[in-house]
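Ticket reopened. Same input as before:
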Amino acid sequence: MGNKETSGVGGNTTCVEVRCGDEIIIFDSGTGIVNLGRTLMKELPVKARLFYSHVHWDHIQGFPFFAPFYVKGNEFDIYGGTCLPKTIQEVLQQQMTPPCFPVKIDLFGATLRYHDISQGDVIEGKNMKVTLGNLYHPNGSFGYRVESENRSLVFATDNEHLEEKMNKNLLHLSQDVDVLIYDAQYTDDEYYGRNGQFSRKGWGHSTMREGIKIAKAANVDKLVLFHHDPSHPDEFVGRIEAESRKIFPRSIAAYEGLEIDLNDPDMPKSMFD
Ligand SMILES: [Zn+2]
Ligand SMILES: [Zn+2]
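Engineering reply: fixed in the latest deploy. New output:
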């Protein structure tokens, strides 16, 4: 597939920035963090918290290419810990060792502080609070809820729904949030293996319909369909968004550069509007 077919949604892997006043939170360092790094280089010195849902490749690949890590005076608190045989520090450092990567992590000029976390932990800043819960994914993943000044958001990607019951951690995290960012990688046909598709059950991802179930049950205001399958071109994602809006009108397919102001009651502009 050429880039043209996916240039709207964008081809980068997971990275989401959340701003709570002057505090910066980053979720995951997929390749999307490279562009974020370019933006943050205009705001030196950078102080931010980086939370990992988990450390599958598509969520860590951009780590060595995040320009603010190379600048002295920047400070980062890095949080992770799903099913790691080692600490989050060791896992990330291991990624930057030969023969897989030539630049050693010692070249980073910024101060990096690592924190191993688990379900039940609460991380508080000046103006924000982050709580986390285990999602259902091979090797585990964390969903995160951010609260700041009566606004709230959940980042819940790399999660497979359970057919018998809804994930109670996710339901709990998502209760009454303004925005739920949810793993809607597959269509129902892909997930259940219908209409010529093979089944993706057990692969650790979910569907738009399951996102809507959670959004309705937890009284979510806006649903962001996230972690699109790499084989879905823009127009295909557009069809998923249109379907979703029939059932849950306040839903939107995520795309590169999408910004949501949690104080704005209106839906952000869809890529397809
Ligand atoms: Zn994953
Ligand atoms: Zn992933």
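The radius of gyration is 18 Å. The chain has a mean pLDDT of 94. Please confirm and we'll close it.
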